[in-house]
Automatic annotation (TrEMBL):
One matching Pfam family: MCPsignal
PANTHER family listed in its UniProt record: LYSOZYME-LIKE PROTEIN-RELATED, METHYL-ACCEPTING CHEMOTAXIS PROTEIN MCPB
Source organism phylogeny: Bacteria, Pseudomonadati, Pseudomonadota, Alphaproteobacteria, Hyphomicrobiales
Protein name, per record: Chemotaxis protein
Keywords, sorted A to Z: Transducer
Keyword Plastid appears in the UniProt entry: no
InterPro entries: MCPsignal_dom
Domain (Methyl-accepting transducer): residue spans on this chain: 26-273
Length: 478
């Protein structure tokens, strides 16, 4: 009877163990699915924040465009008013200029005609003076001949003696007349010469006046053409006023459209904010569910059930203890001080993207942890990395394959230069800050270049002198 009871209890224990194993497998699969959903929700939340940022920028730009359109509309109204005033002023000026130019041109033409007539009159006077001058020369010739005749008569009267006295008196009278005629002729010649000089001067000035009058008429014609151009300018301003009027309606329509867009963008922004708030709630809920799933796995493993994750958990605890021993030994050998080992004063490395930082314990981890962490990669083909992080998620020394020198490509760097970086995401911080014997997390790992991989992360705490330094992480593919 006792044997039967023992056999039944054994069968129950084995059945319970099988059921727990199956429960562990299912819980593991559930954790993977929840982690994937959590990653998608996180992505949606990030996308929502990015969209909200873009929409807010679009709202701001729309508001600026609305203000710019309002200024444009106001400026166009002011421009139209200015153009109207300019058109009126130019029109009035053009009329005044045209009237003045026309009056000046009429006066100039009359002056030119008078100058030409005066020039022609001077020409006639000049011809008359020349004829008088010619007659004066003839009179002088006659006077000389009369004087010669008087001289001959005087000679003949002298020969005649007493009988020629009467003839001599006549000869003397003739000579006196000839002398007077000669004097008059000489005086007339001098006056005519002066008159000719004056006439020549008048003719020269008259010619200059005619030339100036002709140029004035020409200038009046140019002024008239300028008046015509001014009229054309008036017409152009009138066309510009009409163009401004025709542009006013599209600007007003654009203003209304901009206001409508701004309203729609504000509505969209409100919708996105609501969506983002709900996504934040969904992310919080999925994180809680993920935590429950991870807690269930922790409970199953702590129950002594062997699951697929068990060997990774044991490896993480063993390596964490080895690192603690390395740190303790370095302190004992005075290779490093306790303050330096817990240095959180991270110093940025210039020119790195993503940003890398250094601490005072970096030389120790590079020299003592690199080989140990690389050896864990041989534990299972699914193992992707093994690295220690401090309580802030700072990863000083990574595996060799992730510790390449940075290039000029940030995307490449994100995937290949993961050492000396702070991973303060949920998984990284939890691994560094957890004080449980182990922590099993499921998450989506950013591989860089927009690529993600579903991973499990098992970590174990690292204590130095009873003080929590951080944790040892082992990441492996699902």
């Amino acid at each position: 009877m006792t044997n039967v009871v023992v056999q039944k209890r054994t069968e129950i224990d084995e059945s319970t163990h099988v059921n727990l194993n199956e429960l562990g497998q299912r819980a593991s699969k559930l954790g993977v699915e929840i982690a994937d959903v959590n990653g998608v929700v996180s992505d949606l939340n990030d996308i929502g924040r990015a969209q909200a940022t873009h929409v807010q920028a679009a709202v701001s730009a729309s508001q600026q465009m609305d203000r710019a359109n309002q200024k444009l509309s106001s400026s166009m109204g002011e421009t139209k008013q200015s153009a109207d005033r300019a058109r009126d002023i130019l029109s009035y000026s053009a009329e005044k200029v045209a009237a003045t130019v026309e009056g000046s041109a009429t006066k100039m033409r009359a002056l030119s005609e008078n100058a030409i007539e005066f020039r022609d009159t001077l020409g006639s006077v000049d011809e008359t003076a020349k004829k008088v001058q010619s007659a004066s020369v003839s009179i002088s010739q006659i006077a000389r001949e009369t004087q010669l005749l008087s001289l001959n008569a005087s000679v003949e009267a002298a020969r005649a003696g007493e009988s020629g006295k009467g003839f001599a008196i006549i000869a003397t009278a003739v000579k006196t007349l000839a002398d007077e005629i000669q004097g008059f002729a000489n005086q007339n010649a001098e006056n005519l010469e002066k008159l000719m000089e004056i006439l020549h001067g008048l003719q020269e000035r008259s010619a200059g006046s005619v030339e100036l009058a002709n140029e004035a008429i020409k200038d009046a014609g140019e002024a008239a053409r300028t008046g015509e151009q001014l009229n054309e300018l008036v017409d152009s301003v009138g066309v510009m006023v009409k163009d401004i009027e025709s542009m006013t309606q599209p600007v007003e329509e654009n203003l209304q459209a901009a206001r409508s867009i701004s309203h729609e963008l504000k509505e969209l922004n409100g919708t996105l904010q609501t969506s983002q708030e709900r996504l934040g709630v969904a992310k919080h809920r999925t994180n809680n569910i993920l935590g429950i799933s991870e807690g269930l796995m922790e409970f199953i493993v702590n129950s002594g059930v062997e699951v697929d994750d068990s060997k990774f958990i044991r490896a993480a605890q063993q390596v964490a203890q080895q690192i603690a021993d390395i740190f303790e030994n370095a302190l004992a050998q005075r290779e490093i001080s306790l303050n330096d080992l817990f240095d959180h004063n991270y110093q940025p490395i210039a020119g790195t993207d993503p940003q890398q930082v250094t601490t005072r314990y970096l030389n120790l981890t590079d020299s003592r942890l690199l080989g140990l962490q690389d050896s864990v990669l041989k534990l299972d083909p699914r193992v992707a990395f093994c690295a220690a992080v401090d309580t802030n998620g700072y990863l000083p020394t990574h595996n060799s394959i992730y510790s390449k020198p940075q290039s000029s490509d940030p995307v490449w760097n994100a995937a290949n230069c993961r050492n000396r970086r702070i991973f303060d995401d949920r998984t990284g911080l939890s691994a560094g800050q957890s004080t449980k014997p182990f922590l099993l997390q499921t998450y989506r790992r950013d591989m860089g270049g927009g690529k993600f991989a579903l991973m499990k992360d098992v970590s174990a705490p690292i204590y130095v002198g009873g003080r929590h330094w951080g944790g040892l992480r082992i990441g492996y593919k699902v």
